[in-house]
Amino acid sequence: MNKTVKIACEIFVFNGQGLLLLGKRKNCYGDGTWALPGGHLEYGETLLECARRELKEELGIEHSSLQLIAITDDINDARHYVHASFLIKEYDGPVLLMEPDKCYEWHYFHLSELPINFFEPHIKILQTFFNKCVYLPK
Questions:
Q1: Domain annotation for the chain: domains and CATH numbers
Q2: What digits encode the pLDDT tens for the residues 5-35?
Q3: Of 3, 11, 8, nearest in space to 121 by CA
Q4: What is the CA angle 7-8-14, rounded to 5?
Q5: How many distinct helices (H) and strands (E) make up the chain?
Q6: Can you tell me the distance from the alpha carbon of 110 to that of 70, in angstroms, rounded to the nearest whole number?
């Protein structure tokens, strides 16, 4: 077992109608499942810088006002992650498919109609969001 702790940042991106943006993962762990945009923290980068970079790299959008809404642990026999999740309620410009080798598509979903095939590591992040708490203990 790899004894490394990894840190990832995800972003809840809502459009003006309150729909949540999700991407269908491609060519990676969780291929074919829907997930929040985001990725791994890089050395020397703050959590906020990571979230902003991932928005630009994956969606082609820039946003300066990100709100930290959740910290979650993802610990099991295969991995140990800490997820920092941010929120943007509105943004300017179109969402682009910037990494077609990693994502099939971006699609907006109503919160009551999220896809069943959701990326397993992000399920606890969603639970934390729906429970309106910053940290949901294990």
A1: 6-130 (3.90.79.10)
A2: 999 999 999 988 899 999 999 998 899 999 9
A3: 8
A4: 155
A5: 2, 7
A6: 20
- Residue 7: Cβ-neighbour burial (10 angstroms; 0-12, 13-18, 19+): middle
d(CA 15, CA 11): 13
Q: For residue range 42-75, what is the model confidence (pLDDT) as tens digits?
A: 999 999 999 999 999 999 998 878 999 999 999 9
CA dist., res. 74 & res. 121, Å (int): 7
Tokens linked to 129: 């969001």
* CA atoms of 14 and 21, how far apart (whole Å): 6
- Predicted structure pTM score: 0.94
